[in-house]
Amino acid sequence: MMDRPVINNDVREFLRRDQKQLKGKLLEIEKWANENRVPVIPHETVAFFKWLLPLLSPKDVLEVGTAIGFSAALMLESMPKSGHVTTIERNPDMIDKAESNFQLLGLEDKVTLLKGQANEWLEKIESDSKDFIFMDSAKAKYYSFFPECYRILKTGGVLAVDDVLQGGTILDDEKDIPKRTRKIHRKLNEFLDVVLDHPAMDAVILPVGDGLLMITKRDEADFSFMKEE
Fold first, then answer.
1. At how many degrees (to 10) do helices 92-104 and 24-35 cross?
2. What stretches of 65-144 adopt beta strand conformation (E)?
3. What pTM was estimated for this model as a whole?
């Protein structure tokens, strides 16, 4: 989250102020989101994606958690011209704003917005079909969404998972976590316990924003035990 960085404030402000800024309408959307306290990826993550995606050159991207469409638009700007983003969102207000932004940016033909519950849509997406997946949705759901995301991801593809460190509180004892966020704390820890040392993937956490987990799929694996009953 924008107010829960895992680095000190001076470094955070340097990363957000001094790294290359966006231009045009996408910059306007970023500024609007920050001014209106709408959670979008912070600028240090923006800069990282702007560097990373041209290297990966993904043609087919899946996003879990559209919000106002900012990150989907950012990814498209950094992908090949033939690239396409499929993005999932359940919040009607966010859907309306995302559709408006996609229209403003002229991206209607490059984005497929799936409206509804992510777990239902994920089950319908073809296996081994996406080059890159960005998961930035309900943090307590990462654990149960992961098996389908891994199935969907091509071997050699990359899964990026946002906000996994919870401002550093991921390391705290559960009894010290406020009751309203204990489920998030518990499920994120369970998720990290599975993926950080799993032989089927390479995984690394970057201290970007509130922690960005990067996973490369190296082999197939069965994660059905993680699905919710």
1. 150
2. 84-89, 111-115, 130-135
3. 0.95
